[in-house]
Amino acid sequence: AQSVAQPEDQVNVAEGNPLTVKCTYSVSGNPYLFWYVQYPNRGLQFLLKYITGDNLVKGSYGFEAEFNKSQTSFHLKKPSALVSDSALYFCAVRDIAQKVTFGTGTKLQVIP
Amino acid sequence: EAGVAQSPRYKIIEKRQSVAFWCNPISGHATLYWYQQILGQGPKLLIQFQNNGVVDDSQLPKDRFSAERLKGVDSTLKIQPAKLEDSAVYLCASSLKGGGADTQYFGPGTRLTVL
């Protein structure tokens, strides 16, 4: 069975500093990997996805993620954090059978 | 382009009552998903429709939950009867084709409280 792990419930970072939100996955075959962000009382918003090709994927709002097949990871990164980036971030994996599994989420707190 | 619409946004019911949620996906999107998001957890897929056919309902508690997507557009999710543990946010999402690489677009959700 496929799974997604987001090992940190919360990540705190100072405004202007780089941020990383971690995600590891387990899936049969080649994965499709996604990052979503959720603001309070809102649905999930798509940030970026990895399908194939370049391991570094660029997405919305200056976010990027690096696919590492050997470590089965797909960490979300941003060079310089903004206070407005504070939100709940979800990693998701999808296999060839189209089953999608979400992680438990990581709360990002950017401190002014 | 209009996003995924859901109603109501909030619902409070007593246990053993019935409740229904409505979802209107993005125009032209063939695939529609219903998720349950319990506080502190990630969304859990309940059911996936491709047009008006069910692709995956393996995690839908079929003794109390039902869903339909008539005419391959709007969808309703029903709970009958509700239990306390059904308190959650119910998210609807849609995607263009439904393939593995397809991006899902989410609605704002319906927050259900069962008392």
Q: What is the average of the pLDDT values of chain B?
A: 93
Q: Measured on Cα atoms, how large is the radius of gyration of chain B?
A: 13 Å
Oligomer: heterodimer
Considering residues with a beta carbon less than 8 A from a beta carbon on another chain, report the largest interface and each chain's count: A-B, 26 and 25 residues
Which structural class matches the secondary elements of chain A? Answer: mainly beta
- The gross shape of chain B turns out to be globular
Are there runs of chain A of 5+ residues with pLDDT below 50, and where? Answer: none
Termini distance of chain B? 37 Å
Largest sheet of chain A: 6 strands, mixed
Low-confidence segments of chain B: none
Question: Got a strand count of chain A?
Answer: 12
Shape call of chain A: globular
Give the key terms:
heterodimer; A: 112 residues; 4-stranded antiparallel beta sheet; 53% strand; B: 115 residues; mainly beta; 7-stranded mixed beta sheet; 48% strand
What report would you give on this structure?
The complex is a heterodimer of chains A (112) and B (115). Chain A is 0% helix and 53% strand. Chain A has strands at 3-5, 10-14, 19-21, 24-26, 32-38, 44-50, 56-58, 64-68, 73-78, 87-94, 100-102, 106-111. In chain A, the strands form three sheets. In chain A, strands 2, 5, 6, 10, 11 and 12 form a six-stranded mixed sheet that branches. Chain A has a four-stranded antiparallel sheet with strand order 3-9-8-7, with no helix packed on it. Chain A starts with a strand and ends with a strand. By secondary structure, chain A is mostly beta strands. Chain B is mainly beta and 115 residues long. In chain B, 0% of the residues lie in helices and 48% in strands. Chain B is built from no helices and eleven strands. Chain B has strands spanning 5-7, 10-13, 19-24, 31-37, 44-50, 53-56, 65-68, 75-79, 88-95, 105-106, 110-114. In chain B, strands 2, 4, 5, 6, 9, 10 and 11 form a seven-stranded mixed sheet that branches. In chain B, a hairpin with a 6-residue loop joins strand 7 (65-68) and strand 8 (75-79). Chain B starts with a strand and ends with a strand. The mean pLDDT of chain B is 93.
